[in-house]
Design a protein that fits this description.
The chain is of the alpha/beta class. The protein has a single domain, classed as Metal-dependent hydrolases (TIM Barrel). It is built from 11 helices and 8 strands. The chain has an 8-stranded parallel sheet with strand order 1-2-3-4-5-6-7-8. Strand 7, helix 9 (about 255-265) and strand 8 form a beta-alpha-beta unit.
Length: about 300
């Protein structure tokens, strides 16, 4: 009988775990000592020969379906895991934010996070969770962070309900510091009138810098440098904020974003992410002019070092 693709995908997480490809396995590929990668000779022009086996942790991924419900449609999550397997992405840090600036109440936020928890349970070695919170929910938002962390989530996801320089964010930052977990935040230096009108509270680099300056110990990640808006401005504006990391995700595949990130910020502040642009997300790191150590740091090591602080 021909194996069912969905059944195979359900077992991928277990197979990967059995292979030792987990957050706690720090050296899948010893790329520190590798020479600069030679292009493949197998027809994949320009790709390093070992590109798929390079360890990769995606800091910015999503599940969007209500996976915790009895009649859940798992097709989107299964496709996500299948794509990660194809591209050699070991781990996906997933969240399910409530977008559009909606001031979601506690029940809706909890429902969104339950979807991520369901995905973590089904793929324990492939999917990690970031807990979405709506800061306007006050103490309930802090309780939701505690609930998610107790259930195994490793970070907090913020969207565009409030600018990150708004004092309403301060308790969220303080709770994340107490848990020693990172915040990853939706961002964009938008310049067009339509986006400005639809996302009036979207944060840009200056908002991240203000929050980081107030809480220099906060592990703060500015999401999707290629998510839209003026990415060159966004990178340059982070130069004076050494404690803010930047993820490489986004669907705007312009050259040479990664090179400029490294030049302006140094490669130790750059984290690999896809935000659903998975082939392009991997490709932009592979095509950038990086040393093997720089590429390994961006693909996984920088994030691993952030996560290791939870138990430091």
């Amino acid at each position: 009988m021909k194996p069912n693709r969905r059944e195979i995908l359900k077992s991928i997480g277990g197979v990967i775990g059995a292979s030792g490809l987990t957050f706690s396995s720090p050296t899948l590929v010893g790329d520190d000592k590798l020479p600069r990668e030679a292009p493949s000779s197998s027809g994949t022009v320009g790709l390093p020969k070992n590109w798929r086996s390079m360890r990769k942790i995606d800091v910015h991924a999503h599940v969007w379906q209500s996976l915790h419900l009895p009649d859940a449609d798992w097709s989107g999550a299964e496709d996500l895991v299948e794509a990660a397997e194809t591209l050699g992405i070991e781990k996906l840090c997933c969240s399910r934010p409530i977008t559009g600036g909606v001031m979601a109440d506690t029940e809706k936020v909890r429902d969104a996070n339950d979807s991520v928890l369901a995905a973590m349970k089904r793929y324990p070695d492939r999917i990690a969770g970031f807990c979405f919170v709506q800061p306007g929910n006050g103490p309930a938002a802090l309780a939701e962070i505690d609930r998610c962390v107790d259930a195994g989530m490793i970070g907090v996801k913020l969207y565009n309900q409030f600018k990150y320089s708004d004092p309403i964010l301060f308790p969220i930052a303080e709770r994340c510091i107490a848990h020693r977990i990172p915040i990853i935040g939706h961002s964009g230096h938008v310049t067009d009138a339509k986006t400005k009108a639809s996302q009036p509270n979207i944060s840009d680099s200056l908002d991240f810098c203000m929050l980081s300056e107030r809480y220099p110990e906060l592990l703060l990640i500015m999401a999707h440098v290629n998510g839209g808006g003026d990415w060159e401005w966004a990178i340059k504006a982070l130069r004076a904020c050494p404690n803010v990391y930047l993820d490489t995700s986004g669907s705007v595949l312009e050259s040479d974003t990664i090179g400029m990130c490294v030049q302006e910020l140094g490669h130790k502040r750059i984290l690999f992410g896809t935000d659903s642009t998975m082939e392009g997300g991997v490709g932009k790191i592979l095509s950038a002019d990086l040393t093997p150590t720089q590429r390994g740091d961006i693909f996984w090591r920088n994030l691993q070092q952030i996560l290791d602080r939870r138990s430091a």
